[in-house]
Amino acid sequence: MQSQMFFRQKYGFHLRKLLLNNDCMTFGRNRGVAHIGSHLRMNNNNSAKKVKMNGNGESVIDNIRREYSDYKGGALQLTKDDTTGIADICINAFERRNALSGTMMSQLSDIITQLEQWEQGKAVIIHGSNGFFSSGGDLNTVRNIDNSDGGRRMALLMHDNLSRLQALPLLSVALIEGKALGGGAELTTACDFRVMSREAEIGFVHIKLGVTTGWGGGTRLVQMLGPCKALDVMMSGRLIKAAEALNIGLVQHVISDCDTNDSNCVLSKCHEWLNSYTRHNAATLRAIKGIVNSARWLPTDEALKKEVEYFASVWGGPAHQKALGSNIKHK
Fold first, then answer.
1. Would you say 7 and 112 are in contact if contact means Cβ atoms under 8 Å apart?
2. Burial of residue 327 (number of CB atoms within 10 Å: 0-12, 13-18, 19+)
3. Euclidean distance between CA atoms 41 and 38, whole angstroms
4. Do 245 and 153 lie in a common domain?
5. Does residue 331 lie in a domain region?
6. Which of 75, 189, 229, 263 is the most buried (most CB within 10 A)?
7. Which residues pair with 202 in a beta bridge?
């Protein structure tokens, strides 16, 4: 709960401030950490006051969410298992290749809020319905925002959503079947892990549409792959098969022992793979995720201080005491 509140209260305000100032576009492997860290060091109360509000006391992000909820189509379906601590988010708009409508973008914000408040949670798996991950933004929604300001507002909303997804105290996994294209590919970059089925492909195809990444996927791709490989992936716009994605570090696991189009098998195998992490104590998992997020966004000296806090929060706790009693370190 401590790590959950830290990221929700501290990172939430500052990430929104960065987005509203367009500073998010300056993130990078080295400069970006220092840049965002300078904002994260600000006092929470001060930063809260700097979130832009409209005349009704509504934040810009909330205003965009309300507007986008009118762009109908499809749905995101959340299921949570308090026993296992694993949640599933299913992208369900198969007739449109699981494209994300404005309604679904707004729903994603609400779902992330639920996950931020889920004390039993350990991990979340995001996957598409009917063996297809997502083709990105829904065309009906896109046609309603076909100017620069409309594109900027969509980017602000999805930056906020995906930054909060990345900052969750839970492990997050994008399970890619079929294809993840455009904004769908960007969505996968906000997850801690990416898992692909054997036949799946992922494509940052934006260049073919005359645009760039807009939901933070380009920045995260550079952080994951480095500048040269990220340029190759984005400028070619090619579809990357599972074997290459694994080889370049874009995904962490490929499920190869399921029949083609057997989505139930793929999801089950993903749960099995994830169990190697989620079998551990929830508080410890959340603390480790907090350490990683601190190292990602804070200067080293502040991240080290946070690591001490997380360590102290689990030292002497139930899982630690049980391990000591079992002499588990020496087995």
1. no
2. exposed
3. 5
4. yes
5. no
6. 189
7. 180, 240
Give the angle 304-310-314 at the CA atoms, nearest 5°: 145
User: In b/e form, how buried is each residue of 188-202, taking b as 16+ CB within 10 angstroms?
Assistant: bbbbbbbbbbbbbbb
**Where do we find the tokens 């057997």?**
262
Residue 26's pLDDT is what? 31
Q: What is the pTM of this model?
A: 0.83
Lowest mean pLDDT segment, chosen from 36-45, 69-78, 85-94: 36-45
- pLDDT tens across 185-231, in order? 999 999 999 999 999 999 999 999 999 999 999 999 999 999 999 99
| 3-state percent breakdown (helix, strand, coil) of the chain, nearest 5 | 55, 15, 30
- Domain range spanning residue 149? 60-278
Same domain, residue pair 306 and 257: no
Q: CA–CA separation, 278 vs 85, rounded Å?
A: 8
Q: Which residue has the higher pLDDT, 3 or 127?
A: 127
